[in-house]
C-alpha cells in the first residue's frame, strides 16, 4: 500500500509548477526503484470566484451578495466576480449555490451556502445562508443540480494536454465533470490525434447528478471511474451519497474497470489522525470494492501528507484482510454468465485454480495488460504479478518498445503488481525465453517476500495461439 498514481490537478498552478513537481517525482522513483503513474486532472467546466486582491472576504448570514460575470470588479462581501457569464441563464429563484476553497473543505466557516433570490440581467443576487470567511485567490463555485453549458474538455485543458501531457507521456487523464458518454468519446478522439497519448487511459470523474444519470453509458466508454464525493455531496442530499457510491463501485467491479473514491480523510489536512468516521469510511470503500483512494487537500497543502498515506494504507490493508473474496468471486462469475469470452474464461479459470490449490501468487504474462486486469477483476485472495512483455513497434521513422505505459497503468488496479520484462527477451518468441522471464518473475516474488519455498504459483500465459493456465510447486 502506498502512492501508486500522482495526480496533477490543473485547476491550480501553471505548467511550470507541475513540471517541477513531476521532476521531484521522477527523482523519488529513481531513488526508491518504485513505479508511479502520472494522471493529468483537467479543469473542465469548473466555475470559480476570482479574488484578485487575495484579501479575506467575510460573509454574514442573511445578508445579500451579488455574483457577477464582470471580472473587472474587486471581490468584496457585497460582490463576487465569477468566470462564467451564463450563470444568470442557468439558475432561478430558490436554487442553491455553494462557494468554497480547495474543492470544498466542508467546513461551515470556510465555505458558504447561497440561495438565489433574484436574477438581474447577467447578475445573480443571493441570500447568504451561513456566516463564513473566504480566503485565497480562487474559490470554486458549485450550482447544485444545474446544467452548466460549457464543454467538458475546455480549450485550456486541450492546450495543457497537447503541451505538458504530450511532453510527459501521461498515463491517465482524469476527465473532470464528465456528464455524458460523448464527453469521453470526444476526449478519446482528441487523444488519438496526439500520437504519443493514444494509449493514455481516460478516467471519467463523476461530480454531479447529470453524470450519475448517464453513469452506465459513461462506464462503457471510460477506462475507469473517479467518484468525486466532494461535489457529489453537494449535488446530492447527504443521505443519498452512500447509495450511489455502492451502486457505482459495484458496476465498475462487474465491468472490470477501476473505481476510485475521493474525499476520505479531510480532517488529516490539519490533524495527525483521522476521525473515527473517516477511518470507517475508508474501510467501507475498500469493502465496497473500490480500487484506489484519491487524496486531495491532505497531500496538496496538508500538514501530514506522509502520515495520511501511511494511515490510509494501514486501514486499506486491514479491510482487505476481512473482504469476503470467495463470495465476490462467485458473484462475479454469476454476473458474467455464460457463454464467457475466451479471455474472461481463462482469467476466471486462473483465479479458480489459484483458490483451489491455495496458491501464493498468480503470475500473468501480458502485453496489453488486459489479461492481468481481467484476472484482478475476479479479486483473487492472492496478489497478481502482471509481467508486461514489451512489444516492438515502428512509426516508419524509428523502432520503439511498448510496455512502460501498460505496466504503470496496472498500478491503479486493486491487487495488481506490475513487472516490466526485459525487452531483449520477448517471451512470446520461444518457450526457453518464456521460462527465463518466469524465473525473473519468481525471483522478484521471492525477493519481495511474497513467494517462499514449497509455495504453489499459478501462471497464466500465451503459448502460440493457445492460452495456458499452469500450476507450479516451488522446491527449496
TrEMBL record:
<dbReference type="InterPro" id="IPR015813">
    <property type="entry name" value="Pyrv/PenolPyrv_kinase-like_dom"/>
</dbReference>
<feature type="domain" description="Pyruvate kinase C-terminal">
    <location>
        <begin position="344"/>
        <end position="464"/>
    </location>
</feature>
<keyword id="KW-0479">Metal-binding</keyword>
<dbReference type="InterPro" id="IPR036918">
    <property type="entry name" value="Pyrv_Knase_C_sf"/>
</dbReference>
<feature type="domain" description="Pyruvate kinase barrel">
    <location>
        <begin position="2"/>
        <end position="309"/>
    </location>
</feature>
<dbReference type="InterPro" id="IPR015793">
    <property type="entry name" value="Pyrv_Knase_brl"/>
</dbReference>
<dbReference type="InterPro" id="IPR015795">
    <property type="entry name" value="Pyrv_Knase_C"/>
</dbReference>
<dbReference type="Pfam" id="PF00224">
    <property type="entry name" value="PK"/>
</dbReference>
<protein>
    <recommendedName>
        <fullName>Pyruvate kinase</fullName>
        <ecNumber>2.7.1.40</ecNumber>
    </recommendedName>
</protein>
<dbReference type="GO" id="GO:0004743">
    <property type="term" value="F:pyruvate kinase activity"/>
</dbReference>
<dbReference type="InterPro" id="IPR015806">
    <property type="entry name" value="Pyrv_Knase_insert_dom_sf"/>
</dbReference>
<dbReference type="GO" id="GO:0005524">
    <property type="term" value="F:ATP binding"/>
</dbReference>
<dbReference type="Pfam" id="PF02887">
    <property type="entry name" value="PK_C"/>
</dbReference>
<comment type="similarity">
    <text>Belongs to the pyruvate kinase family.</text>
</comment>
<dbReference type="GO" id="GO:0030955">
    <property type="term" value="F:potassium ion binding"/>
</dbReference>
<keyword id="KW-0418">Kinase</keyword>
<keyword id="KW-0067">ATP-binding</keyword>
<comment type="pathway">
    <text>Carbohydrate degradation; glycolysis; pyruvate from D-glyceraldehyde 3-phosphate: step 5/5.</text>
</comment>
<keyword id="KW-0547">Nucleotide-binding</keyword>
<dbReference type="GO" id="GO:0000287">
    <property type="term" value="F:magnesium ion binding"/>
</dbReference>
<keyword id="KW-0808">Transferase</keyword>
<keyword id="KW-0460">Magnesium</keyword>
<keyword id="KW-0670">Pyruvate</keyword>
<dbReference type="InterPro" id="IPR001697">
    <property type="entry name" value="Pyr_Knase"/>
</dbReference>
<keyword id="KW-0324">Glycolysis</keyword>
<dbReference type="InterPro" id="IPR040442">
    <property type="entry name" value="Pyrv_kinase-like_dom_sf"/>
</dbReference>
<dbReference type="InterPro" id="IPR011037">
    <property type="entry name" value="Pyrv_Knase-like_insert_dom_sf"/>
</dbReference>
<dbReference type="GO" id="GO:0016301">
    <property type="term" value="F:kinase activity"/>
</dbReference>
Amino acid at each position: 500500500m502506498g502512492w501508486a498514481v500522482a495526480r496533477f490537478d490543473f485547476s491550480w498552478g501553471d505548467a511550470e509548477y507541475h513540471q517541477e513537481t513531476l521532476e521531484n517525482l521522477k527523482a523519488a522513483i529513481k531513488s526508491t526503484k518504485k513505479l508511479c503513474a502520472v494522471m493529468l486532472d483537467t479543469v473542465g467546466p469548473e466555475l470559480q470566484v476570482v479574488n484578485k486582491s487575495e484579501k479575506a472576504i467575510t460573509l454574514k448570514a442573511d445578508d445579500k451578495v451579488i455574483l457577477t460575470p464582470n471580472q473587472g470588479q474587486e471581490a468584496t462581501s457585497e460582490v463576487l466576480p465569477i468566470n462564467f457569464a451564463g450563470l444568470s441563464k442557468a439558475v432561478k429563484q430558490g436554487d442553491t449555490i455553494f462557494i468554497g476553497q480547495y474543492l470544498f473543505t466542508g467546513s461551515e466557516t470556510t465555505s458558504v451556502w447561497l440561495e438565489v433570490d433574484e436574477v438581474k440581467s447577467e447578475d445573480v443576487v443571493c441570500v447568504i445562508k451561513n456566516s463564513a470567511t473566504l480566503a485565497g485567490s480562487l474559490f470554486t463555485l458549485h450550482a447544485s443540480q444545474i446544467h452548466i453549458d460549457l464543454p467538458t474538455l475546455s480549450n485550456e485543458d486541450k492546450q495543457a494536454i497537447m503541451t505538458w501531457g504530450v511532453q510527459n507521456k501521461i498515463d491517465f487523464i482524469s476527465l473532470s465533470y464528465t456528464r455524458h458518454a460523448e464527453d469521453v468519446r470526444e476526449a478519446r478522439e482528441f487523444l488519438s490525434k496526439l500520437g504519443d497519448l493514444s494509449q493514455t487511459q481516460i478516467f471519467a470523474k463523476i461530480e454531479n447528478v447529470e453524470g450519475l444519470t448517464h453513469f452506465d453509458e459513461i462506464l462503457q466508454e471510460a477506462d475507469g471511474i473517479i467518484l468525486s464525493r466532494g461535489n457529489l455531496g453537494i449535488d446530492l442530499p447527504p443521505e443519498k451519497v452512500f447509495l450511489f457510491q455502492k451502486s457505482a463501485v459495484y458496476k465498475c467491479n462487474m465491468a472490470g474497470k477501476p473505481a476510485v473514491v475521493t474525499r476520505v480523510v479531510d480532517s488529516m489536512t490539519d490533524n495527525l489522525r483521522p476521525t473515527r468516521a473517516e477511518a470507517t469510511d475508508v474501510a467501507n470503500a475498500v469493502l465496497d470494492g473500490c480500487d484506489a483512494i484519491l487524496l486531495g487537500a491532505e497531500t496538496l497543502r496538508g500538514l501530514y501528507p506522509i502520515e495520511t498515506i501511511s494511515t490510509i494504507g494501514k486501514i486499506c490493508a486491514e479491510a482487505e484482510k476481512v473482504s469476503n473474496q470467495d463470495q465476490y468471486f462467485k458473484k462475479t462469475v454469476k454476473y458474467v454468465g455464460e457463454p464467457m469470452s475466451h479471455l474472461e474464461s481463462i482469467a476466471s479459470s486462473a483465479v479458480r485454480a489459484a483458490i483451489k490449490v491455495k496458491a501464493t501468487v498468480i503470475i500473468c504474462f501480458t502485453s496489453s495488460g488486459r489479461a492481468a486486469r481481467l484476472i484482478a477483476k475476479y479479486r483473487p485472495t492472492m496478489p497478481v504479478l502482471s509481467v508486461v512483455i514489451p512489444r516492438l513497434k515502428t512509426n516508419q521513422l524509428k523502432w520503439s518498445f511498448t510496455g512502460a505505459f501498460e505496466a504503470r497503468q496496472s498500478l491503479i488496479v486493486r491487487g495488481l503488481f506490475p513487472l516490466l520484462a526485459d525487452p531483449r527477451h520477448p517471451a512470446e518468441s520461444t518457450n526457453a525465453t518464456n521460462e527465463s522471464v518466469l524465473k525473473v518473475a519468481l525471483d522478484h516474488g521471492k525477493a519481495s517476500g511474497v513467494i517462499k519455498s514449497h509455495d504453489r504459483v499459478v501462471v497464466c500465459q500465451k503459448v502460440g495461439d493457445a492460452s495456458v493456465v499452469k500450476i507450479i510447486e516451488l522446491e527449496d
